[in-house]
Amino acid sequence: MRFRRQKHDETQPSLVEGAVPIGTAPRRERVIVCGEVVRIRTKPTIGLPLYFVTISDGTGNAVALLTGRFEAPPLGTTVVFEGAGYESREGLRFMNPGYRILR
Amino acid sequence: MAALKRILLGKPLSSSDEQHQRLSKTIALPVFASDAISSTAYATDEILVVLSLQAGIGAAAFRPLVPIALVVCVLLAIVVVSYRQTIFAYPSGGGAYIVSRENLGHYPALVAGSSLLVDYILTVAVSVAGGVLAIRTATGLGREWAVPLCLLCIVIMTIMNLRGVKESGAFFAGPTYFYVVMLVILIVTGLYRIYVQHIGPIPDSLLSDGALETRAGTSSLGLLMLLRAFSSGAVALSGVEAVSNGVPAFRRPESRNAATTLMWMGAILGSCFLGVSVIASHLKPFRGEHDGNGLGLLAQYLYGGKGTMFWLTMIATFAILILAANTAYADFPRLASIIARDGYLPRQFFNRGARLVFSNGVIFLAAVASVLIVVFNGDISKLIPLYAFGVFTGFTLSQSGMVRHHFRLRERGWRVAAVVNGIGAATTGLIAAIVVVSKFTEGAYIPALLIPIMVFAFQSIGRHYIRSRQSVSVDPGYRAPRTTHTMVVLVGGVNLGVLRGLEYARSLRPERLMAVTVASDDSDRQRIEQQWRDFEVPIELHVVYSPYRELTRPVMQFLSELDEMYQDHTITVVIPEFVSSWRSQWLHNGSAFALKAKLLHRPHTAVVSVPVHMGATDEVTDVHVGPSTAHGHQ
User: For chain B: N or C, fewer Cβ within 10 A?
Assistant: First the structure.
């Protein structure tokens, strides 16, 4: 389930300019992280559209809480999150970060 | 299956019926003595095989026959007297194993136990192979029938023994007594005709060419051959320990009844063996390498040809040889249960089946004996060399243990008893050594290697059970730490089973409740999310990506991540499962089965199967499961 095919190697240039490894990304600072969507959590009946999208780059997991959206980035795609993350049980978490799908 | 089991094995017996399943002396004698008594059919022949065929001493082979038989009878008396003392000292049974355990320590006990278990297995294989060989010789059936007939005999005896001790005893009592009666008639007839009618040796016309060649042997008898002949004759003692192993199977008072039965067994065995040897020493039944058994030749000569008495004697001999295996069926499961109770064999051997017999021991014995029959092609001559080493090792340890017992307790008359047991231990130890040395290359190396391997295996099992006990033992006052509860319901789609599983999980009010599905692409996720919305399922859904379409590994990884997040929790994995008829059950739950097997070894994890029975059609209609919801962990 973890992101294995593109395991992060710190000696290689990052896939995305300015992106940092999730495992070492500073908290409460604006960062760019990149990884594969490995899990999506949802609870459709609470009224508010809500997705927890977990990405992994091999160094750690980052979870993006996406509210008010009826679609989540598809499983298995590589996604870039940009925003200020904070520490949670699941690892680095972003609240409604900017995101784009690379492939 | 249940109906077939009932037809074959009979109705189940309650535990309170156990006393009624106990054996009277008349039933116990054939149950426990058929092995020992059956050896009268071949023990004399075994001595003569060494003296006339292997040593090649010709007519001189019959000179030491009676002295050897007398020494074997003295040895038999020593062993019987020793085991009589054992029966009273250890009324709970176990024979050599128990005596060794109590007096010599657990290593000698395990050696004794494994020796006896090996010997019981060989008893079944050898006796059945011997009986089938006799039947084949009489009826002219070809060699290709050996293995199927042996296996058929084992199956019949296994079923009879699974029906219960008492019933199998009743079944086997007739043939055993029939053999004893026929043998006594043969001996009495022989003694009458020798000493009253003064008949001479068997004439040449009844002997084969091979037998006449054997008679022409002129070699001299060496000490080693004499000892080998003696050790071959001593196979008559195999099975003597059976009564002391099976004391709990006797009616009350168990020890006294068992002791009486043992004495009867010793008297029948000793007198018949000596009687046959005396007759043989006068009538000189020379045999070639490929001839039938000597008892048949004696019967043919004494009864004046192959008439009714000859056939009755032969039929009785065939029957006792096959039924001798029943002694092993009576004792192997009991001994295995005692060793299992001590924690050196799997606990399954300690459990009694529906008919109050140690069913697993019976089935295991039958299975291993069948394997031996198949591997050795049902050939008794290949199996015989494996035999007897275990018996004498058991005797030696048992009697050594009794010597220690006497020195420890110093009861009245202990010195005489210790001397008797000491002589028995020394003699049987010597025979065990002679057997293994003289027959090592012929196959005696197999039990000599197998027994240490079994002792090692027993030790490993014992250590495992000790570790298991230690890992769950707690001091008084211990309280289990409180943990939070995370419930994970595995889903593949929304259907009756999943909805029931989710509702069941909710009813347990866990701290955390979630549904997990594994998706190999995003269309799977969109489908189940749509179903989740359609059915308004009020539970959080986790969709885990599995690009390689695996189920077990992503789920295990998901649970590990939950463990990292909640370190004080217990996880319950709920798996909705479909239950259909036995014919179609294999079509369902394949993935769930593999997952459950994996989860069984995961710490702090419980697995709950929520069954959905296929017949509940009304309820299926109620929840309006649509065509797109057919996916599940089915």
Answer: N
3-class DSSP assignment, residue B475: coil
Give mean pLDDT, residues B428-436: 83
Encoded tokens for B362? 């019976």
- HSE-CB of B320 using CA atoms within 13 angstroms: 27
For the stretch B250-285, what's the b/e string if a residue is b when 16 or more beta carbons lie within 10 angstroms of its beta carbon?
A: bbeebbebbbbbbebbbebbbebbbbbbbbbbbbbb
Is B565 close to A89, i.e. CB distance below 8 A? yes
| Helices B445-472, B389-409: crossing angle, 10 deg rounding | 50
Backbone angles phi, psi at B479, to 5 degrees: -120, 135
* Residues ≥6 apart with Cβ < 8 Å to B489: B498, B501, B502, B505, B513, B514, B515, B516, B539, B574, B576
Say which residue the tokens 């199967």 belong to.
B609
Q: Is B152 in a helix, a strand, or coil?
A: helix
Chain A residue numbers with beta carbons less than 8 Å from the beta carbon of B553 are: 1
Q: Do B525 and A40 touch (CB under 8 A)?
A: yes
Averaging pLDDT over each range in A56-65, B136-145, B296-305, which range is the top one? A56-65
- What is the token pair recorded at B117? 């278990």
Please count the other Cβ atoms lying within 10 Å of the Cβ belonging to residue B574.
23
Q: Scan residues 73-92 of A and list those with Cβ closer than 8 Å to B.
A: 74-77, 89-90
Question: Cβ neighbours of residue B596 under 8 Å, at least 6 residues apart?
Answer: B575, B607, B609
Give the distance from residue A75's alpha carbon to the nearest chain B alpha carbon, in angstroms.
5
Question: Chain A residue closest to B513 (CA)?
Answer: A43
Cβ of B541 within 8 Å of Cβ of A39? The answer is no
B539 touches chain A (CB under 8 A): yes
Mean pLDDT of all residues in B180-185: 94
Q: Which of B385, B303, B338 is nearest to B49 (CA)?
A: B385
Give B541 to chain A, closest Cα distance, Å.
Answer: 5
Extract the residue ranges of chain A whose pLDDT is less than 70: 1-15, 44-47
DSSP string, B549-560: --SHHHHHHHHH
pTM for the whole structure: 0.69
Identity of the highest mean pLDDT range in B73-77, B378-382, B389-393, B420-424 = B73-77
Q: How many DSSP H helices and E strands does chain B contain?
A: 25, 5
Residues of A in contact with B544 (CB under 8 A): 1, 38-39
The sign of the torsion formed by the CA atoms of B289, B295, B296, B298 equals positive
B253 cis-preceded (ω within 30 degrees of 0) = yes
